[in-house]
Amino acid sequence: MPDGMGLELVVAAAMGGLATMACYALGGRSKDWLHGWRALGWLVLATLWAMGGAAFAARFTRGLGAVTHLSDTFPWGLWIAFDMLGGVALAAGGFLMAGAVYVFRLERFHSILRPAILTAYLGYLLAVGGLLADLGRPYNIWHPIVYWQHRSVMFEVAWCVTLYTTVLTLEFLPLLLERFRWARALRLVRAFTAPLVIAGIILSTLHQSSLGSLFLIVPQKLLQLWYTPLLPLFFFMSALAVGMAMLIFESTVSARAFGRSLHRSQITALARAMPVVLVPYLLLRVLDITWHDGWAAAFQHPLQGATFLVEMLLLLVPTLVLLRAGWVGNAKVAFWASMAVVVGVVLNRLNVCWIGMLPSAEIPYVPSWREIVITVNLLSYGIVLFGLAARYLPLFEEHD
Amino acid sequence: MTTALRRPIGRRGLLRFGLGLGSIALVGGRKVSAFQAPDRMEAGVLVDLTRCIGCRACENACRVRQGRSGLPLAGLGYGPGEGRLSFTSLTFVDQRVVERHGQADIRAPVKRQCMHCVDPACVSACPVAALRKTPRGSVVYEASRCLGCRYCMIACPFNVPRYQWDSGLTPKVGKCDFCDDRIASGLSPACVSACPTGALKFAKRWEVLREAKARVGSHPERYHSIYGEHTVGGTSWIYLADVPMEELGFRTDLPDQSLAALTWRALSKVPFVVIGVGVFLGSMLRLRQREGRHA
Lengths: 400, 295
Prior knowledge:
The complex is a heterodimer of chains A (400) and B (295). Chain A has 400 residues and is mainly α. Helix content of chain A is 74%, strand content 0%. Chain A has a single domain (63-392), classed as Up-down Bundle (Formate dehydrogenase/DMSO reductase fold). Chain A is built from 17 helices and no strands. In chain A, helix 4 runs antiparallel to helix 16 and helix 11 packs across helix 16 (331-353). Chain B is of the alpha+beta class and 295 residues long. The interface between A and B is large, with 59 and 59 residues.
C-alpha cells in the first residue's frame, strides 16, 4: 500500500457519505430518494465525490507531481485554466445583475438577482477550490494580505479574489438571514447594500481584467493569436458577454427545473445586450491580430489554429443570430446562443492558459484523470449547492 | 580569485567607463527598466563559451555546495538534450550540437543556470516577494513566504524556476541563488571558483560587460555573439559564443524591454479604474435615486 493510501480511503469514504446526505437533502428528505433514476444519480454522485476526495488527499500526501501532469516548463494546467479563469468568468453575471438592479434600477431583473449572485458565489467557490488544490502551499493563501508586492499582477488577483468573495458572502447573506428570520442582522446587512454593490462592481472589473493581465508577462510563450497588450480589456469584455449568457442559461434552466414561469422580457433584454459587447469584442480581436501580424501563427500551429477558429465561431455565430430582429425574441434561440457563448468564452480561457501556451512547453501538457476528477467534483459541488439553495432558501421568492 | 577582473582596470579606465555607463543610464535608463537602472554594485558572471571544455566541474561544485553528493566518476557524460535544470540541479552543462567552421555535428557545451536578470520577471510576478533581487545582483527565493502559485515559473522567459513536484505539503521553488551567501562574504560563486579554464569569470556586471566587449574587440574573428546585455532589460550573466546564440538554445526573440514593464503598464492603471468606475457608479446611483423621488 503506497504512503497515504489510508488517508485517501478515509477521505473517499467521508465524501461518499457526504454525497449520500446531499442526495437525501436534495430529494426533499422523503423516503423515495433511493428509487428509480434517483438511485442512479446517488450512485454517480457518491462515486464521483469519493474519487474526488481520494484525489484531493493524494495531492497532499504525494505531491502535485504524482496527481497532475504539470511539469517544470508547464506549471499551470486545468485547475488554473478552467476552475480559476473559467469559474471567475462564469461568475460575471453576479456583478452585472447587482449593478442593473441596485445602481441602474432595472426592476425587471429583480427576480434573477438572487440566482445570479448565488451563481457568482459558486463560480468563486470553483475558483478558490481549484486554487486550494493547485497552490503548492495553500495554507499560505493569506500571505498576500501581509506581504505586499504591488508590482505583481498575482498580488492584485489575490486581493480581488479575497475582497470579492467577502462581498459575495455579504450579498448572499440575506438569503440565510431571511430563512432563519434574523431580522436585526438582516436590516444591518441591507443598510450596506449600495456600497457593497459598488465595491463588488469595481472589484469585478479589476479582477476580470487582471486575470488577462497575468499573461502580459509571457509574450514569448503565448501564441500571437491570443497574446496582445489588450488582454485585460478582452478578458473584461468577454466576461461581460459570458455573464449575460450565464444569466440567460440560469433563467431558462431554473425555470424548467423548478417549475417557474419563464421571464421572457428578461431573456430578450439580455439577448439584445449580448451583441452590444460581442460585436466590438470580435472586431477588436480581429483587428488586433491583424495589427500584430498574428495570423501566421494559426497556420504554423494547426491545433491552436483549430481551437482559435472554434472559439471565434462559438462567439461569432450567436452574435449574428442574436442580431436578427426576428430571432432575438425567441427564448429557445436565446438559450442556445447563450450556451454557445458560455462554451466559447470558457474555450478562450483554456486557449490562453493552456492550448496557446503548449508550443513553449518541453513536455506537452494534457490533464491527468485526477485533475479532471477534481475539476468535475468542484463543478458538481456548485450544482448540488445551487439545488440545495433552491430547495431550502428563499432563492426564487419575490422579495422587496 | 575574484580580483582578476576587478584590479587591472586602472583609475582612468574606470572613470571613463563610469562616465559612459552614467550617460547610458541617463539616456537609456528608461528603456532598460521602468524601475531601476542596473546598479554598479551588482555582480555578474562572464560565460565565455569559447573557453568551456564541458568538464562539468561547475555542476559538481554546485551539487557539493547544496550538500548533495558530487557527480559520479563513472558515467560522467550525457547526450545532447538529456541534461536539464530541476529542483535539485540548479545548473548543468547542456550538450548542443552545432556547425562550426563548416563542420557539422560539433558538440558545444553550454552552462545553464538562472540568468539573474537586472529587472527579473519572476521577482515582479511574485505576489508575496518570496523572490527578490538583492543589491548584490542575485535573485533569491525565500520559501517561508511562498504560497506556491508558480507564477514565477510562468513569467520567467528562460524557464529557470523549477518546482518540488513530489512534496505534498511544503513544495519549494528551486533556482540558482548566485551563491548569495558566498558573494555577500566576498567570495565568487561555487561554480565560478571550480572552473579550471577561465570560461567563467566573476566581477561586477558592468565590468563583465566591458570585458566581454574588450574580448570581442580584440578578437572579432573568434566571437560571433554576446548575450545578456539588453535581453529582457539585461541579465547579470553575460554569454560570449563563437556561433549564433539561437543555435546554442538561447531565445533571441525576447524583447530588450524588461517583461515586468509589460504587466506594470496594466497594473499602473488600477487606481484610475477604481476611481473612474467608482465615480460613475456613485453618480448613477444618485441620479437614479433622485429620479425615484420625483416620480
